[in-house]
Amino acid sequence: MDWIACGVLGGQRLPMSNAAVRHLTVDAESADQRLDNFLLRELKGAPKTLIYRIIRSGEVRVNKARARADTRLQAGDDVRLPPVRLPERRIDLAPATAPARQFPVLYEDEWLLAIDKPAGVAVHGGSGVSSGVIEQLRQARPGPAWLELVHRLDRETSGVLLVAKRRSALRRLQDQFRERSTGKTYLALVRGEWPAARQVIDVPLHKYLLPDGERRVRVTDARDPLGQRSISLVQVLGEVHAPAGWPADAPGMTLLAVTIKTGRTHQIRVHLAHAGHPIAGDDKYGDFAWNRLLTRLGLKRMFLHAWRLRIRHPATEQELQLHAPLPPELADWSNVQRFF
Question: Torsions phi, psi of 46, nearest 5?
Answer without folding.
Answer: -80, 135
